[in-house]
């Protein structure tokens, strides 16, 4: 079987999607994705010369609304779902890596 | 109480005549769920306190004699937001998420006086066809508890089939209402894309997702769609088309209707009993006065590839929002923001969700976009043209819903390719945005088999009309499961 996607490519794609695949899981995911991408490639049999792509089948075109903010009065409920909050704000860890490991 | 021999009509009569109060009905329904659901595992959350409170409120307001949904307990698939009621999409990443508003479909249903009992199990983020991809539990098919209930709306379909509820909402991106309806011997409708608002439905494939009803019979299904359909300013793809009364043509029969059976849907890989069920259904429709002929949807064999590229691409984009910041699971011991994103997502998503995100990210990435995403979107056009051509001469399409009856728990889950191929008969309907409904039409070794009726865009009326004609002249939907011998 020709390889459609390599372990390195799987690692790269996972990185783009902010996922980490552990090394011991890599062969498992790579084999599966390779098979599925092989299926994807059967589309090359179809002549699509000059065919417009379909991205949506909605019957609505250019739906507009007034650009006004609505207050749903749900601040506390929103904050209750956040993993870490302080003084009505959502807290995140330090953005700058201070460990020096990922330089 | 169980709902095996009930319908919205019979329950409404009891409520309107005050033979039972909404509160007592809710309480008895909850007691039955308590007794039955240990074997089925249809529910992820049952909120007894809020259900009883809502039912009391309905009793206080009085049952509306003209509204068949007033006081009826319902179940909601766990990917629809329910205000104040935990909503997880069966994912660890949303394990502790409590929405601050209702999905529009849920809100509309509530405005008709339904009582939300709880949330049903599903494949994580609706990705799967057996409900085995749930992060929390495995749902069992009430007809044979060693079998899967189908998916991804497996909990909703099993809850209806097991007589736990009369009405459940599901969602359908590639067959997730119709296939479990087929596996469980119940009626499941995926309406036209845009018919029901997607606001508050946790997005999977935004150009494909639709919410729809799962019920014991066609009339109940049409009644529920009446309640949840219509334009919503919060979903800009929801249609402004007028919503007809979907029950208005139920009894008009199928005389003179032209029904097509796609040759490509009846070919290789189809279980013999399933094939025979469709042929028998065709004969039934002929008997009732319709003409049934073979038609062709020539691009069918490319559907699985096109669908998995498009739906995974949309999913990879939609699921970016789960980053551990504002809600959902946040990983511990992280060094920085990047680390927080990666760890939270890697711990929070299951394998199937990771696979789909990676397939989508790959299909959209630089250098591959034209060969994969764009190509799939072009094939989608060709598939949709195939349908449009058929619908010039035919009113409806009749087809098998799934290639096989329900299979064993654990049988398919290890091989995603097998799982994906099982969607071949349902996903073309999503790509084209058409209405499609699965109705019970036969049995294979004691397991239900459904057939699918597919209509023109926004012509749910014809789908319901034909479905009801079939149901009235057959008794497949009156059979009830033994639930692994417990009934």
From TrEMBL, chain A:
BP-aspect Gene Ontology terms: glutaminyl-tRNAGln biosynthesis via transamidation; regulation of translational fidelity; translation
EC number: 6.3.5.-
Top-level class of the enzyme under EC nomenclature: ligase
Origin: domain of life: Bacteria
Recorded GO MF terms: asparaginyl-tRNA synthase (glutamine-hydrolyzing) activity; ATP binding; glutaminyl-tRNA synthase (glutamine-hydrolyzing) activity; transferase activity
Keyword field: ATP-binding, Ligase, Nucleotide-binding, Protein biosynthesis, Transferase
Pfam family, one: GatC
Gene3D superfamilies: Glu-tRNAGln amidotransferase C subunit, N-terminal domain
Catalytic activity annotation: L-glutamyl-tRNA(Gln) + L-glutamine + ATP + H2O = L-glutaminyl-tRNA(Gln) + L-glutamate + ADP + phosphate + H(+); L-aspartyl-tRNA(Asn) + L-glutamine + ATP + H2O = L-asparaginyl-tRNA(Asn) + L-glutamate + ADP + phosphate + 2 H(+)
Region (Disordered): 81-103
Cited HAMAP family: GatC
Oligomeric form and interacting partners: Heterotrimer of A, B and C subunits.
Function: Allows the formation of correctly charged Asn-tRNA(Asn) or Gln-tRNA(Gln) through the transamidation of misacylated Asp-tRNA(Asn) or Glu-tRNA(Gln) in organisms which lack either or both of asparaginyl-tRNA or glutaminyl-tRNA synthetases. The reaction takes place in the presence of glutamine and ATP through an activated phospho-Asp-tRNA(Asn) or phospho-Glu-tRNA(Gln).
Family, similarity comment: Belongs to the GatC family.
Name of the molecule in the record: Aspartyl/glutamyl-tRNA(Asn/Gln) amidotransferase subunit C
Lineage of origin: Bacteria, Bacillati, Bacillota, Bacilli, Lactobacillales
Automatic annotation (TrEMBL), chain B:
Catalytic activity entry: L-glutamyl-tRNA(Gln) + L-glutamine + ATP + H2O = L-glutaminyl-tRNA(Gln) + L-glutamate + ADP + phosphate + H(+)
Alphabetized SUPFAM superfamilies for the sequence: Amidase signature (AS) enzymes
Amidase domain: residues covered: 24-460
Keywords: ATP-binding, Ligase, Nucleotide-binding, Protein biosynthesis, Transferase
Pfam families per record: Amidase (PF01425)
Nucleotide-binding listed as a keyword: yes
Key word Transmembrane helix present: no
Enzymatic class: ligase
Classification via InterPro entries: Amidase, Amidase_CS, Amidase_dom, AS_sf, GatA
GO cellular component, one term: glutamyl-tRNA(Gln) amidotransferase complex
Gene Ontology molecular function terms on file: ATP binding; glutaminyl-tRNA synthase (glutamine-hydrolyzing) activity; transferase activity
Record-level GO BP terms: translation
Entry EC number(s): 6.3.5.7
Active site: 77, 152, 176
Gene3D superfamilies: Amidase signature (AS) domain (3.90.1300.10)
Family statement: Belongs to the amidase family. GatA subfamily.
Function, as annotated: Allows the formation of correctly charged Gln-tRNA(Gln) through the transamidation of misacylated Glu-tRNA(Gln) in organisms which lack glutaminyl-tRNA synthetase. The reaction takes place in the presence of glutamine and ATP through an activated gamma-phospho-Glu-tRNA(Gln).
Oligomer and partners: Heterotrimer of A, B and C subunits.
Protein name listed in UniProt: Glutamyl-tRNA(Gln) amidotransferase subunit A
